[in-house]
Amino acid sequence: MINRRSLLKFVAATGTLVLASLSISAPVLADELDTIKEKGVIRIAMSGAYPPFNFVNDANEVVGFDPAIGTEIAKRMGLEVEIITTAWDGIIGGLLANKYDAIVGSMTITEERDKVVDFVGPYYATKRAIFTKEGSEITSVSQLDDATLGVTLGETHEQWAREAGYKIRTYKGLPELLMELDNGRVDAIVNDRIAAMLAIKENGYKMVELPDLDTEAFGAGIAIREGNPDLKAAMQKALDDLMADGTYLEIANKWVGGDIR
């Protein structure tokens, strides 16, 4: 029996897992779609700390754009949905450990992640952005060399900031990032542009985006375990259908104020 610790190592900086040995054969498993249909429930994971995409409301319910998309996909597959919240830096580890069936949590699709999970989607697109407080002396990316940047632990933005050589502090999610910037504990924060702008507006923070960051758009996808082509196809069809029939736009208008495909 292969010990799980010797099989997988978690890379916290990227939120991904890599094989710990060069050649380990795993047993061939049946596609999980049939098992999920037998149970009648698909378990989806997210951080619950990324408003307005996913967050816990005053009624202690996990709501937002991500759970709405995940719930609609499940409905079209004839399934109920169970939402599980977990720390972002261990979320892929939980997927591979079978703690849930999919991650519907605004996960950026990257080549590194795609080596260990399969993606459905993308279901929206955004860009990296850097924000400072209004009136900050930092008005350009070129002024960040001596600054302290706040990032969410396990996000691709953390990896980017580390590779760029910036001094960083890590946090659990966007609400913490915004509070730390507002309180002056960090000089700037790095985050997905759409989520940050919406949260800044919603909470009345006086923050501005640095205008000269060179970045490209990236897609957010739904992660599932590899080796499940039927599950992937069923989820992709449900996603494609809801995008085509106007349901996606209704969800997007409600939670993020417009189409973000």
From TrEMBL:
PROSITE patterns reported in the protein's UniProt record: TAT (PS51318)
GO annotation, cellular component aspect: membrane
GO molecular function: ligand-gated monoatomic ion channel activity
Alphabetical UniProt keywords: Signal
Extent of the signal sequence: 1-30
Pfam families to which the protein is assigned, alphabetical: SBP_bac_3 (PF00497)
Keyword Signal (UniProt): yes
Domain Ionotropic glutamate receptor C-terminal: 41-258
UniProt key word tRNA processing: no
Protein name: Amino acid ABC transporter substrate-binding protein, PAAT family (TC 3.A.1.3.-)
